[in-house]
């Protein structure tokens, strides 16, 4: 993953990261404020040896003590000591339970043992710590170490710091809880964001399309909530951002080598509802506005839309011409004041659209129309549900594939394009539709602002 992909994912999924981080903080705060406070009290014991002879013997005694320090630490939590503590303080717990509340250690580079008692009560924590130190001394001196001289022990344990009642609990540490909760929430949020991004194969931008196919992206169209009511943007709002995008698409097509004077192209998509009919109609208007004699054919014989968008009578059209029920003269309808754009509606809905569009009659009809029009735009059905568009692509100069942001998945787009490539149909390029106007995938803000002014 590149840095740009990382940043785009964060910008696209930032809300998930924020919510899970806040949730982690909330859970941590709940535990911190509801957890039982624990107090710790500490006692320190100094371990020494009695000097009974020469300096050499004293040194040997000191070494003896150092070697046994860790053993004294282990004895601290032994029932031999803790049973006496329980009896003295009248504690309602076993030696094993009490051992879980006691910790002891040798302070490095010293002969000091530190005994720490933890308890829900500050007063009881201090009492336990002091009692453990007291009885540890009794056990070591009286029971474990050998006696020397006048029945005194070679080793002596002296309490140098008695435990006092702690004023504040050592846990829970609210700042620590919040930091840990926030970090864990942030990690969970990032993991969720990147997992969701990895599983989301929908097209979000032109970059996603470019990463899916080698075919060029010829144009991008911003999402327009009014497109359903006013689909003919080039006609209704010639200075709008979408109208300028159609003129940009028209310009891009001029640089494609069609290999013929008359250019015939199919406008299709992977799935339904990606906006192919709207794009086909507006592209035809833009071409006609540029002075080209243009024909718009509605070859979507299953769900025709062109006649509705162009406000024309669509009862008779392409299907009727192909079966011989009508002629071109009877079905071609002029559109617009300039007289350069004509429309051939879909006509009656046949039972066999694919066979009809792939027939010799269709190929002959297109050959005839090429001699009469400079530009022929064919609105065809989507590629994945049916084969109509693929069939038409073989008898035209190529296909213009529409891809809708947030609707088309990259796998669907790749499969649709692969279907065209498998039959050696030419893919002229792609058009990305419904691009967002805001957010990390927003498109074309600078140029469109200029146009609107």
Automatic annotation (TrEMBL):
Highest taxon, organism lineage: Bacteria
GO cellular component: plasma membrane
SUPFAM superfamilies named among the record's database cross-references: P-loop containing nucleoside triphosphate hydrolases (SSF52540)
Enzyme class: transferase
Catalytic activity: L-tyrosyl-[protein] + ATP = O-phospho-L-tyrosyl-[protein] + ADP + H(+)
Segments forming domain CobQ/CobB/MinD/ParA nucleotide binding: 267-435
Keywords (A to Z) from UniProt: ATP-binding, Cell membrane, Kinase, Membrane, Nucleotide-binding, Transferase, Transmembrane, Transmembrane helix, Tyrosine-protein kinase
Polysaccharide chain length determinant N-terminal domain location: 2-89
Similarity comment: family membership: Belongs to the CpsD/CapB family. Belongs to the CpsC/CapA family.
Name recorded for this polypeptide: non-specific protein-tyrosine kinase
Organism, as annotated: Agromyces albus
């Amino acid at each position: 993953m590149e840095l740009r992909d990382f940043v785009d994912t964060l910008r696209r999924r930032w809300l998930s990261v924020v919510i899970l981080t806040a949730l982690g903080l909330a859970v941590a705060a709940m535990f911190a404020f509801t957890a039982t406070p624990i107090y710790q009290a500490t006692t320190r014991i100094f371990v020494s040896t009695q000097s009974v002879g020469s300096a050499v013997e004293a040194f040997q005694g000191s070494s003896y003590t150092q070697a046994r320090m860790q053993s004294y630490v282990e004895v601290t939590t032994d029932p031999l000591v803790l049973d006496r503590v329980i009896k003295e303080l009248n504690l309602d717990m076993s030696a094993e339970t009490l051992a879980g509340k006691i910790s002891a250690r040798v302070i490095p580079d010293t002969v000091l043992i530190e005994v720490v008692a933890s308890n829900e009560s500050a007063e009881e924590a201090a009492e336990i710590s002091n009692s453990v130190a007291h009885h540890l001394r009794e056990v070591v001196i009286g029971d474990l170490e050998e006696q020397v001289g006048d029945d005194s022990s070679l080793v002596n344990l002296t309490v140098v710091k008695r435990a006092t009642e702690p004023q504040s609990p050592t846990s829970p540490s609210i700042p620590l809880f919040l930091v840990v909760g926030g970090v864990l929430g942030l990690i969970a949020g990032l993991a969720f964001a990147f997992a969701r991004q990895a599983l989301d194969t929908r097209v979000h931008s032109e970059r996603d399309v470019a990463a899916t196919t080698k075919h060029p992206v010829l144009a991008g169209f911003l999402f327009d909530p009014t497109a359903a009511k006013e689909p003919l943007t080039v006609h209704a709002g010639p200075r709008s951002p979408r109208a300028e995008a159609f003129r940009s698409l028209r310009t891009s097509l001029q640089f494609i080598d069609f290999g013929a004077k008359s250019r015939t192209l199919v406008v299709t998509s992977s799935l339904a509802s990606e906006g192919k009919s709207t794009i086909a109609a507006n592209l035809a208007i833009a071409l006609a506005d540029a002075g080209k004699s243009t024909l718009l054919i509605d070859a979507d014989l299953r769900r025709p839309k062109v006649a509705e968008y162009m406000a024309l009578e669509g009862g008779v059209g392409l299907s009727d011409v192909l079966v011989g029920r009508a002629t071109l003269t009877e079905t071609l309808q002029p559109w617009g004041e300039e007289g350069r754009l004509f429309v051939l509606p879909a006509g009656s809905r046949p039972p066999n659209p694919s066979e009809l569009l792939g027939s010799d009659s269709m190929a002959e009809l297109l050959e005839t129309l090429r001699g009469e029009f400079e530009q022929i735009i064919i609105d065809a059905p989507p590629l994945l549900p049916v084969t109509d568009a693929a069939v038409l692509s073989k008898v035209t100069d190529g296909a213009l594939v529409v891809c809708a942001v947030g609707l088309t998945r990259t796998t669907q787009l790749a499969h649709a394009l692969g279907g065209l490539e498998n039959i050696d149909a030419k893919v002229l390029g792609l058009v990305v539709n419904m691009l967002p106007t805001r957010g990390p995938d927003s498109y074309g803000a600078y140029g469109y602002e200029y146009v609107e002014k």
